[in-house]
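[stage:ingest] chain + small molecule (zinc ion)
[stage:ingest] validated
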Amino acid sequence: MTIIIRVPQQAEEENIMSELKTHQGACHCGAVKFEIDAPSQLHAHACNCSICYQSGGDQMIVPTSRFRLLCGEDAITTYTFNTGAAQHTFCKHCGIKAFYTPRSNPDGFSVNLRCLDRTHVESIVVDSFDGQNWEQNAGALAHLSREG
Ligand SMILES: [Zn+2]
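[stage:predict] done
[stage:export] tokens:
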């Protein structure tokens, strides 16, 4: 007897869409280089909290296992404020914050998609995130640093 388990077509398409590519990223001067594993269709948040609003950037949270720092550990310096939970890491040469450790997801990284090479990027959808009311909204981001 043969048992055939059919995969619904929609699920198949979603699998293709979520196939992970390796995206290269860097700060402006190139001292800090990293790579992430992520789909080619990316989903970012634009946050309006006190620091994100000033620094700008389209942020996407990835699990630690999908982030690799390639070089520039000695070029990275860290700014903290308020609770000190978020580690706002940036390049001390060019000032660009290509990625950091967010307070919402201390077990992951938030990557600035504007610092990614576009070779494998098909699209970027940017949703607004109301970081001015962080306590009410941060829970919606918690799953983003988990695998799967
Ligand atoms: Zn730099």
